[in-house]
Each structure stands twice: as structure tokens, then as C-alpha cells.
Amino acid sequence: DAKTTQPTSMDCAEGRAANLPCNHSTISGNEYVYWYRQIHSQGPQYIIHGLKNNETNEMASLIITEDRKSSTLILPHATLRDTAVYYCIVRALYNFNKFYFGSGTKLNVKP
Amino acid sequence: DADVTQTPRNRITKTGKRIMLECSQTKGHDRMYWYRQDPGLGLRLIYYSFDVKDINKGEISDGYSVSRQAQAKFSLSLESAIPNQTALYFCATSEGGDGYTFGSGTRLTVV
Question: CA-to-CA distance for B11 and B13, rounded, in angstroms?
């Protein structure tokens, strides 16, 4: 699986959009981009995933660049409860082996 | 009830003791996983199982064993616990290309 690069930490004001970047320059054509988050030692929570088209669900939007070498997770209206570590993971859809969780980005949402 | 339930939530045990961590799920998923998380690190895969008759080692399986008693149950054992197995342990399930569903974790301390 392709590896990812994320900033170690980011700050965001409550009510504003949080934009979390991820670089995955070695991504292969059959690999998806997944986003998870982990709130203070709880189990990681699935957020969203996509292949090449932008995706949106009730939690977030995922924007993938045309060359698929990077992506951005957008939380449209961040709240204090969105403070967490966010993991960007690249994995082939039918690679049932595992997810590689790197160090992620610690998002601090401030009042 | 949670989709993925781990017991116990917290456990302190002595070096050399055998300990079992249990995981049960109501998702109906065939695939189950055990991860450990250490402070400042991402999640590392210990073992995974695609069905009751299928068990596979992950990247850090030494010192651990697992049992898949049923589709819904996947337990992790430490045959002879040692202090560097002190960590947060997560069980997860998945189905096909979907994301994982994680349990709330077991915090294990080996003294």
C-alpha cells in the first residue's frame, strides 16, 4: 500500500471549516483513500473514502486531486467534539490484509 | 449495544501471567482484526481472520495468539505477558471494501 504524509497538527476555530491535507504521491490506480479519526484513545472511527471522484457524506467531504497524489478532508463546520487525530490511509479496495495507520494529524478545534 | 464489544476495558496483570482479551461483534462481518496502539504511534496489526477457519499473522504477532471461536467472536491471548506488551488494544471488523468498525479498546498494563 502507498504511504501517506500528513502534518503533525493543525488548529481550527470552532464553526469554521477544517481542511486536513494528505499527500500520497505513490498511490496506485486501484488504491482508495480512506479517512479515519480517533478521539482520545477511543477506537478509530471511519469517516469517508474515495477513489478519484470527490465524495461527501454527513460527516465530511473528501477532495482528491486530479492526479490523485493528494487529498483534503473537509469538516465543514468544526465543533469542539471534532478535536481528534485524523488518519489518512491509502489501500487497494480488495487488499484485505490491513490498514496502515501512520501518525496522523492532531486537529485542535478551539473556541 | 455497540457493534464491536471488547472486554475487559482495562486490565492490569503481572509479568508472566496468561491473559485473554475478548472481542464480539454484531455486524455480521466475516473479517476481524486485532491491533495494538502505543503512545505516539499509529495502530499496528497483530492478527487477522477472514473467517472461522482462517487465521493470519500481522506485523507484530510474536508473543500473541488468537482464537476465532465463531464468526462473531475473536479473542487475543498473551501466553506470558511482558511489560512491553503494555498498550491499548483494539479489535475491528470489516466487510469487503468498506471501512473498519473498531471496538472501544482494552487498556492493558503489564507490571
Answer: 6
**Residue tagged 490506480 (cell numbers):** A29
Q: Is the CB of residue B20 less than 8 Å from the CB of residue B89?
A: no
For residue B96, give every residue at least 6 positions away whose Cβ sits within 8 Å of its Cβ, in sequence order, or none: none
CB pairs under 8 A between A and B: 51
Report the amino acid identity of residue A42.
Q
CA dihedral A20, A25, A26, A30 (to 10 degrees): 60
CA dist., res. B17 & res. A23, Å (int): 43
Q: Name the grid cell of B81.
A: 505477558
For residue B41, give the chain A residue with the closest CA. A103
Give the DSSP letter of residue A51.
S
The Cα B49–Cα B55 span in angstroms is: 5
Please tell me the distance from the alpha carbon of residue B94 to that of residue B77, in angstroms, as a whole number.
Answer: 21
Q: What is the pLDDT of residues B1-19, one digit of tens each?
A: 679 999 999 999 999 999 9
- Best residue of A22, A98, A106 to probe chain B, by most B CBs closer than 10 Å: A98
pLDDT digits (tens, 9 = 90+) for B28-55: 999 999 999 987 677 888 999 989 999 9
Which residue type, as a one-letter code, is found at position A49?
A: H
Query: Can you tell me the distance from the alpha carbon of B87 to that of B56, in angstroms, rounded to the nearest whole number?
Result: 21
Give me the mean pLDDT over the A12-20 stretch: 97
